[in-house]
Design goal:
alpha+beta, 223 residues, 7 helices, 23% strand, 29% helix
Length: 223
């Protein structure tokens, strides 16, 4: 969870307010501003991730052509439900791409899987939740694992969430760099795949847990 992200709280509130019928004309500018700021934040976080892998700070950014990265903006509305246990807001799944940034209207319901158990994620006002995606797992050769998450319903308040999935350029073939393979002393965990092809494969199947492209690795995982 990122708190000191540098994105104005008023802008975050405006993005969450997108559903208001009184503001249709201004939403394009608000979303464009927010997406551009998120892209800058992605670049900064990727530098740290790349360095942590023992690579040059800009190595991941260059290899994945993040100057032309694909961003997908998704807004979800979950109405309050009288019998929350009888319905599910979102099935367990991981996201494609590198990092997904999530903001909410302050209502909980998001859970992530940790050590085989579902854990509630607090909805902290003004914060941005950052989830690792499938292509961060592929690029890092399994050193980073994409997050499995789901949404549960509640009977008290409607929940609004806005997510931006940030991935490489569509034509980028995602694979771990040779330097990382040599350093780790093991073969690539997953077969290289063009990002656009991965998206088509994922979107043509039902959303359920991790993509089939991650369920069938080419070698054993890290110990």
């Amino acid at each position: 969870m990122v708190v000191n992200h540098g994105i104005p709280e008023k802008l975050i509130e405006s993005v969450i307010d997108f559903h208001s019928p009184q503001k249709p004309a201004s939403i394009r500018g608000i979303v464009q501003d927010y997406c551009e700021r998120i892209r800058g934040l992605v670049i900064e976080l990727v530098k740290g991730l790349s360095h942590n892998l023992g690579l040059q700070q800009d190595e991941m950014e260059i290899a994945l052509n993040l100057e032309s990265c694909l961003q997908i903006f998704v807004a979800n509305y979950y109405p309050k439900y009288p019998n929350p246990r009888a319905a599910q807001g979102m099935v367990p799944h991981s996201d494609h791409g590198l990092l997904t940034f999530l903001i909410t209207n302050g209502v909980g319901g998001l859970q992530i899987q940790h050590a085989g158990k579902w854990v509630n994620v607090p909805a902290r006002a003004g914060s941005i939740l950052v989830n690792a995606g499938d292509h961060l797992e592929i690029f890092s050769n399994g050193k980073y694992s994409s997050v499995l998450r789901r949404v549960v319903m509640n009977d008290e308040s409607p929940r609004i969430s806005v997510a931006i999935a940030n991935g490489p350029s569509l034509e980028t073939i995602v694979r771990p760099p040779e330097k990382l393979i040599e350093k780790g002393g093991r073969a690539p965990f997953y077969a290289p795949m063009k990002y656009s092809e991965y998206l088509m494969s994922q979107q043509s199947n039902s959303l359920h847990e991790k993509s089939s492209n991650l369920r069938f690795p080419t070698s054993a995982p890290w110990n």
